[in-house]
Write a structure and sequence with these properties.
Order of helices and strands: HEEEEEHEEEHEEHHEHEHEHEHEHEHEHE
CATH class of the largest domain: Alpha Beta
Distance between the termini: 29 Å
Radius of gyration: 23 Å
Structural class: alpha/beta
CATH topology of the largest domain: Quinone Oxidoreductase, Chain A, domain 1
CATH architecture of the largest domain: Alpha-Beta Complex
Oligomer: single chain
Strand content: 15-25%
CATH superfamily of the largest domain: Medium-chain alcohol dehydrogenases, catalytic domain
Number of strands: 18
Helix content: 25-40%
Shape: elongated
Largest sheet: 7 strands, mixed
Bound molecules: nicotinamide-adenine-dinucleotide, zinc ion
């Protein structure tokens, strides 16, 4: 290499970039350049890399300027983000017509800049540079609001990250190396959780909500026999929450032996592989045998299969309860016999859809409790990819060969 032709500025830039773990093409913003940058804050580059879904089944890594951090804003260096079923729908079909869009809502990272007015998170906890945070798709103004209400009110805007139409800032999704959190957004300080736990917060909140719905029936109790049908991430997290609550008698039902084996690690006392039974009567006997000769007091339906919905009533005793949470989107109609399945058995049924803000706070406590009692929650994240390989990550997710797939930044 002819050193005389090498621009010194370029060398400095590259050295600084390598310290930041960045690729080529970004220049470094001085630490004193933005609000609250003093106190040993790390330098941030002038630009951020954002994975934009630009076509069906295709992300491009784009580079955008990092805006000046206003008095109420927070700039977060992203550490990682889980891939959700909703991302998979967007990737395959763009049902909401959002392309080009910055996705990723199960993300977490470290505050590297914040405005002078930012003092507390949405739960009243202090916020400092260096703290680890997550955002939430629910507005803090109303802790009881659910996504159902958001849809009804057609509210959106800066508060929701990774699922709304893009704007001219672009740093709107957690599939990126920096995210720009506007003043007034819902944000939580979760520095006391490890990276994988933080990535699992959003899906865990779905199950905290479902268990709260289940408790509202008055049937789910400390010593209940509980059947959990479906051992994808949703059913598995359900089992871990029940176990953390002290429920001991949990039977997991699925057709994938590997998932059933993992269900045991997360707290199931027994498993039933439906593929080993022919017909619903035989399967019901299998579930009964797993409970030592009893039907379930309560059941959680965690598959998106209409047949799964039809079957689950048979596993529940007279006077028992059911929480149906397997249909985040329309999965078609299911056939049941209203007389035998609900009426004469006096089954109490609740539905559950996403979560409220209060469920978020409970979720943080759950993740700490799960760790304390030794449940290997981190094993739910079976595959990790760097941001550059986000297309492969999504394809792995669609192939359903793992459980939770996550983007982890270097
Ligand atoms: N209520 C909500 O807010 C909410 C939120 C997220 C996801 N969901 C829904 O929860 C469902 C599960 O999510 P996931 O990520 O765990 O999905 P997943 O596809 O990874 O897991 C589903 C599991 O169910 C098993 N299964 C399928 N049919 C079955 C049957 N008849 N009997 C027993 N097991 C059967 C599959 O083998 C699989 O392991 C999805 O349909 C999703 O839409 C709901
Ligand atoms: Zn999600």
């Amino acid at each position: 290499m002819d050193l005389n032709n090498v621009n010194v500025e370029e060398i400095v830039r590259q050295v600084l970039l390598s310290m930041e773990g960045k690729g080529q093409g970004a220049a470094v913003q001085p630490a004193s350049g933005t609000a609250s940058a003093a106190g040993g804050a790390k330098p941030v580059p002038k630009t951020a890399r954002v994975a934009m879904l630009t076509a069906l089944e295709h992300y491009d890594i784009k580079e955008f300027p990092i805006p000046e951090v206003g008095d109420d804003d927070i700039l977060v260096k992203v550490e990682g983000c889980g891939i959700c079923g909703t991302d998979a729908h967007e990737f395959k079909r763009d049902p909401f017509g959002l392309i080009p869009v910055a996705l990723g809502h199960e993300g977490t990272g470290e505050i590297v800049r914040m405005g002078k007015n930012v003092k507390k998170d949405s739960a009243g906890k202090d916020l400092h540079i260096g703290d680890k945070v997550v955002t939430c798709m629910i507005f803090k103004d109303n802790p009881d609001i659910t996504m159902f209400d958001l849809n009804k009110q057609n509210v959106g805007g800066a508060d929701v990250y990774g699922l709304l139409p893009d704007d001219d800032i672009h740093l709107n999704g957690w599939f990126s190396d920096y995210i720009f959190i506007r003043g007034g957004s819902t944000v939580f300080n979760v520095s006391d959780l490890d990276l994988y736990s933080r990535i699992l917060i959003e899906p865990c909140a779905v199950l905290i909500h479902a268990v709260e719905r289940a408790k509202s029936t008055g049937i789910l109790r400390f010593n209940s026999r509980v059947a959990v049908q479906g051992c994808g991430p949703i059913g598995l997290i359900c089992i871990a929450i029940l176990r953390t609550m002290g429920i001991q008698n949990i039977i997991a039902v699925d057709g994938e032996q590997k998932r059933l084996d993992f269900a045991k690690q997360l707290g199931a006392s027994g498993t039933v592989n439906f593929k080993e039974f022919k017909g619903i009567e035989a399967l019901t006997e299998g579930v009964k045998a797993a409970f030592g000769g009893y039907l379930a007091d309560f059941a959680f339906q965690c598959t998106g299969s209409p047949a799964g919905h039809s079957n689950i009533y048979k596993f529940i005793r007279n006077g028992g309860g059911l929480c149906e949470l397997g249909f985040f989107i329309n999965g078609g109609d299911a056939t049941i016999n209203p007389h035998f399945d609900i009426c004469s058995k006096e089954i109490t049924t609740v539905g559950s859809w996403v979560y409220t803000l209060r469920d978020y706070a409970t979720t943080f406590d759950f993740l700490k409790s799960a760790k304390r009692i030794g449940l290997p929650m981190e094993k739910l994240i079976t595959h990790t990819f760097p941001l550059d390989e986000i297309n492969e990550a999504h394809k792995t997710n669609l192939a359903m060969s793992g459980l939770k797939i996550a983007i982890i930044n270097q």
